[in-house]
Amino acid sequence: MANTGKVKIGLIGSQFQADIHASSLKSMPHEAEIVAVASPTPGNAEKFAKHFGIARAYTDYREMLKDREIEMVSICAPNSLHAQMTKDIVAAGKHVIVEKPLAMTIAEGEEMIAVAKKAGVLLMYGEELLFTPKYLKVKEMADAGAFGKVYLVKQSEKHFGPHSDWFWDVNRSGGGAFMDLGCHGIAFCYWFLGRSPIKSVYCQMGTYVHGAKTKADDDCLCILEFANGAVGLIENSWARRGGMDDKIEVFGEAGCSYANLHMGNAMPTYSENGYGYAVEKAPTTKGWTYPVFEELWNYGTPQELNHFARCVRGKETLQSTGEDGLVVMHALYAGYASAGEGKKISMPFSAPQAKKPIDLWLNGPARRT
Amino acid sequence: MANTGKVKIGLIGSQFQADIHASSLKSMPHEAEIVAVASPTPGNAEKFAKHFGIARAYTDYREMLKDREIEMVSICAPNSLHAQMTKDIVAAGKHVIVEKPLAMTIAEGEEMIAVAKKAGVLLMYGEELLFTPKYLKVKEMADAGAFGKVYLVKQSEKHFGPHSDWFWDVNRSGGGAFMDLGCHGIAFCYWFLGRSPIKSVYCQMGTYVHGAKTKADDDCLCILEFANGAVGLIENSWARRGGMDDKIEVFGEAGCSYANLHMGNAMPTYSENGYGYAVEKAPTTKGWTYPVFEELWNYGTPQELNHFARCVRGKETLQSTGEDGLVVMHALYAGYASAGEGKKISMPFSAPQAKKPIDLWLNGPARRT
Amino acid sequence: MANTGKVKIGLIGSQFQADIHASSLKSMPHEAEIVAVASPTPGNAEKFAKHFGIARAYTDYREMLKDREIEMVSICAPNSLHAQMTKDIVAAGKHVIVEKPLAMTIAEGEEMIAVAKKAGVLLMYGEELLFTPKYLKVKEMADAGAFGKVYLVKQSEKHFGPHSDWFWDVNRSGGGAFMDLGCHGIAFCYWFLGRSPIKSVYCQMGTYVHGAKTKADDDCLCILEFANGAVGLIENSWARRGGMDDKIEVFGEAGCSYANLHMGNAMPTYSENGYGYAVEKAPTTKGWTYPVFEELWNYGTPQELNHFARCVRGKETLQSTGEDGLVVMHALYAGYASAGEGKKISMPFSAPQAKKPIDLWLNGPARRT
Amino acid sequence: MANTGKVKIGLIGSQFQADIHASSLKSMPHEAEIVAVASPTPGNAEKFAKHFGIARAYTDYREMLKDREIEMVSICAPNSLHAQMTKDIVAAGKHVIVEKPLAMTIAEGEEMIAVAKKAGVLLMYGEELLFTPKYLKVKEMADAGAFGKVYLVKQSEKHFGPHSDWFWDVNRSGGGAFMDLGCHGIAFCYWFLGRSPIKSVYCQMGTYVHGAKTKADDDCLCILEFANGAVGLIENSWARRGGMDDKIEVFGEAGCSYANLHMGNAMPTYSENGYGYAVEKAPTTKGWTYPVFEELWNYGTPQELNHFARCVRGKETLQSTGEDGLVVMHALYAGYASAGEGKKISMPFSAPQAKKPIDLWLNGPARRT
Q1: Are strands A150-158 and A231-237 parallel, antiparallel or unpaired?
Q2: Distance between alpha carbon D270 and the CA centroid of its chain, in Å?
Q3: Taking 60 as the threshold, does the pLDDT of residue D223 lie above it?
Q4: Sign of CA pseudo-dihedral D355, D358, D362, D367
Q5: Contacts of D288 in chain B (CB under 8 A)
Q6: Which of A2, B38, B144, C268 is an S-S bond match for B61, by CB 3.0 to 4.6 Å?
Q7: What number of helices (H) and strands (E) belong to chain D?
């Protein structure tokens, strides 16, 4: 492996998340490039490679890991595969990017961190909200004292359900909207508050709209208490109509701020004819819409991947770590447990018996009543 | 008492709420008029009467109750006085308007309803959100099926603390932001969802900013579960800077709507010089502001008071009742208890020992740790 | 005619404007009531009367004028009929409300004012923007000095074309979007600036979208210079998709304000199913929409009609007069002439030969090239 | 000069525009780098060079032009110097970036284009709106047919006056708000409409607020007619309070879109304390503000400069040319003439006698009356 030039990436996956990674690097191409892609479904990797001009395609990612040019591997695969893939990548001596959430279980997450540490490779956690330009500005204002002591941070991500079918199967996803989207909000609040430890978690969740196709929660409200006295309120949904919605609010003793990536960034547009693309998960481009511009840049994924590449080159210090992902995992478990028990769960919380986070809700006493 | 013409009102109070009642009736003068005002502080009632052109002023409301012309008495006094005043008014054979919240305790509320019923007078509960024009439109859309089955209703009211000092004293107010403002949100969600019974309440609250002057909660998040499967999320604050903020959001399987009475109704305005009035509790009229227009009409208080007067005349059926206020009281108690215990409280919930709602939080096991 | 009680109104018309008048008085019923309606198309008046609970219906408005109970007649008929109707109403000794624009020609307008003056009846000009609550608040801020000296006032009204077909026929309407909607903007800027005289008018107009069905202008930009040094910019369209849009902007040396009656008052709403009604001229209630609440109140028509009734009773001084309408007529003529000549037209401007305002554009030298 | 690697830039200027160029290249450093800076005021270039880590500083730009490493020179100097500097740069065999507007006179602009062409170097015109991401998305929707045939394009840029004092001196600037800001709007509309030729120009302008310090227009409305039948409306101000405002609106037979770079991108924020930076020309960071995030990226200057560097390397085709700047110059002259004459000016328009655009207004017959 070279230590200069662009960082060479191997990508696992060919669906929605993989597309975002490849498109992000196409828009910011100077620090890294994807040289190989692996996807198990025959033909998918080839098609993806062709579309994005990637040199090599594999059906078995383990074959790809033999590629000595590859320095960093990005996992854009179902949550249930994160741990094994990470171990394989680390064993091949390569750096790892894991898309959120980190893993299915806390034990898996701990092992991933341990093996990466032992091998001396970076375990980078794909939380793009830490790189979202609009949210960074709010953090910058907060750090400049604009709001005085912050007592409440809110983050919300909502849409009408995930791109890939495996999310609906709790055995592959480990959980529903809270696991899929709440991991963003937990990481965001934790980071915004200077990584103050999470003291407790409470969730209200249900399968309100998609009960016919999933056992997963499709809408969730989550309240976090932090050691510094602040509170986080996270709202997530797979049941909100009208396209993607991602926003934050920050309240402090001396001020407040409202930032919205979608309706708050958009150019309200009316079209009888429709047009190419409005925004992630938008149902139509006709009538009134809220189109986004430079969507990935506004989410921060190109900046995140560039940061990861620069970390590999030693030019920057990792801002979104496996440890961050593990903090999120603990909160996810506690959140599902709180919904299962109908009470606030104090941290630290361990649930050694649960195979996946959502079991703590599905099998909880409050749920069974 | 006449049974035709304008309904004659006696007003108890001369502060913020009393001002709203008098101003509201001045803007919609056809159904009712204030003929007397009572306030215990010497001079206050006179000054108020003079300002609003009210015929008679009293320092003792019991004197006012002897006025045979008065048909309806509006209580704009501290929460701790609601029950006794109501009993006195009812005893004088007059209809009662009680500003929110209904009372200090559930027992008080039950007694108020009972005495009014027995005397055959109306006990009208001053929840103006049931008359807020913008919110009524969202309800109308919901009832027309715009959103399909509604699974989440949100209401939020926030500002930087109440007008009158007695609110900070929990012995006079019974509670903080949750009691003062949460009563709006509870009533709103309950009404929006067709008065589906409240099944459970969970609150996260704290004294985040005003700890030096009060033991009351100054910020609260409240989650309600309703019997029909929907959820309410209520956010209240006495710690939010920048003026009043009141808004709702509604989410259903087929759509959603966002209504904001303040920033969402305003004309964004910049002024170097300032001007007369921006909005309730706005800190300044200089720089950028979000001024309101026809503030009371947009809140719905004139419409509410006109409705009450028409109910007295038998022209309309009461939409906001003492029973509604009692439902809110139960949820307030359960909410404070949930914060005190760190768990969701199932309804029905009784707390016979508590002298006021906030005691269940202040003395709760979760709080003491 | 009585001089007390509700003012009794006779309404001429049964289409869009008439509906607004009747609905407005239904929502604010204390000052006036419609006791008769006249419409020439057989059946229309009856249907309208039945719908709104109006006592009497006529096909010939002259028959209606014999009704001695009627004190005030509201003209909601094509522009080409305003002058004759006004003369007939005045001859019957009744007060007149004329919907905008005042007339087809300046001569007509002058005669209308003269006959009303001679007969001692009120000629009231239906410009509801002078009663629009949101705009009144901006005026109030301006008058309080919020913006210092105001140098630019903007008003814009746009939609995709009028309700009634007669508007497309320039012989009945006298002009297109500028005449239909520009009359609002001219009156608004004139009134906002304290009735400073209009010094010059310049218009850019065209038939951009509806050329197949009309010779009328369907989009117009109009610049007014006022004697006090301020400028008005008026934008009107019958070619703007997506529903009604009405907004103002005010700029002064010390500040500015932006007020929008539609997108700026709305609750952004998404619906898969649709619902009853979004807003005047909205194409659909499905997808994203900007529904209005209490539309007429927010436009100000109920307040305007109540004001007119109170003027008839001598309780208020007329705020929107025939003279205001005549100022608008002069500016409409000058505006069409400016577009016809490609130059700013200085006031006073007379065009004795033109049968209707739009002729000055259609036959102008700039247009013919 | 090398033909590979980063393009080496020499920068003329050390004030506001120069800062934007240097900051832009710092944020997108891969294609170009500033290796030298020249500014006549002693010390300025050194200070600037030190701040941005630029290798060499000069007081005389002609000295800098001798630097053989420099391939491209960016002119961020008063308008009156653009022509001479361009000729000197071209004579040194280097590519030229000219900040807007292109020159003081049409003759200058023509000569600049001619000398660059003859020397075979690129004359690149610094119009960043052609690279503004949000506006590009609207253009993309328009080109995808979202709006059908576009009949009206609006662009507005307003603030309370320029950064540098030389703008107020019409002998150095050549004009006021229309020249300084209108050049953006003219170029934008022209580009948005596929470079359809401008057929006519009409301007309304005045010195409404800053008359004590300048003869320049401080507010201007400009109407353009294009050969394809569409109209442009450009609004500019040096008199609008409250910080920078830049926005567009597009109207077509099938739809419309509203894009706002400032209030429409911002996170509405309230702060008692203030914070580092809100937005270009914002008066304060206290109270309510509309802070921007990644301001330069959202304006498009980094993208513009990267594009220019890539054009120098032959990787892209120049999108914003000297010829575009010359089209703008013609419209500026016509616009000032139209205000001076009170009539629409048809293109082509030549004004050989005018030393600077604003003279046509200041000395025009309409102005003198």
Answers
A1: parallel
A2: 32
A3: yes
A4: positive
A5: 242, 287-290
A6: B38
A7: 14, 15
CA-angle at A337, arms to A334 and A341, nearest 5°: 135
Total residue length of chain A: 369
Q: What is the pLDDT, as a whole number, of residue C368?
A: 61
- Spatial neighbors of C234 by CB under 8 A, at least 6 apart, are C154, C155, C156, C182, C185, C186, C189, C220, C221, C222, C223, C224
For helices A322-341 and A106-119, the axis angle rounded to 10 degrees is 170
Q: Which residues of D touch A (CB under 8 A)?
A: 30, 133-134, 136-138, 140-141, 144-148, 254-260, 264-265, 267-276, 285, 291-294, 297
- Of B325, B345, B346, B337, nearest to B366 by C-alpha is B337
Compute the distance between CA of residue A142 and CA of residue A251 in angstroms, rounded to an integer: 10
Each residue's pLDDT tens digit, B98-113 = 999 999 999 999 999 9
Confirm if C205 and C199 have CB atoms less than 8 A apart: no
* Contact by Cβ (8 Å): A278, A290: yes
β-sheet with A123-126: strand ranges across = A56-58, A32-38, A7-12, A72-75, A95-99, A123-126
What's the DSSP call for residue B321? B
Query: What is the edge-to-edge ordering of all strands in the sheet holding B7-12?
Result: B56-58, B32-38, B7-12, B72-75, B95-99, B123-126
**Mean pLDDT confidence for A308-329:** 98
Task: Tell me what ipTM this predicted complex has.
Answer: 0.96
pLDDT for the residue D369: 53
Using a 10 angstrom Cβ sphere, with 0-12 exposed, 13-18 middle and 19 or more buried, the burial of residue D352 is exposed
Q: What mean pLDDT do residues C273-297 have?
A: 93
Mutate to test the interface with A, among B152, B159, B347 (most CBs of A within 10 A): B152
Residues on chain B bordering chain C, Cβ-to-Cβ distance under 8 angstroms:
30, 133-134, 136-138, 140-141, 144-148, 254-260, 264-265, 267-276, 285, 291-294, 297
Residues B317, C221: Cα–Cα separation, whole Å? 51
The answer to whether A116 and A196 have CB atoms below 8 angstroms apart is no
The predicted-structure confidence for D9-21, as pLDDT tens digits, reads as follows 999 999 999 999 9
Q: Which helix (H) or strand (E) holds D109?
A: helix D106-119
pLDDT-above-90 percentage for chain D: 94
* pLDDT confidence of residue B283: 87
What is the DSSP secondary structure assignment for residue C292, as one 8-state letter? Answer: -
pLDDT at D232: 98
Q: Chains A, C: CB contacts under 8 A, how many?
A: 28
In chain B, which residues touch D (CB < 8 A)? 241-242, 263, 268, 270-272, 283-284, 286-290
Output the average pLDDT for chain B.
96
Q: Which of B76-90, B184-198, B339-353, D107-121 has the lowest mean pLDDT?
A: B339-353
- pLDDT above 60 for B2: no
Contacts of B368 (CB under 8 A, 6+ apart): none
Nearest to B343 among A223, A231, A342 (CB): A342
Token duo for residue D344: 């629409």
Identify whether the C-beta of residue D151 lies closer than 8 Å to the C-beta of residue D224.
Answer: no
Contacts of D239 in chain C (CB under 8 A): 151, 251, 253
CA distance A162 to A168: 8
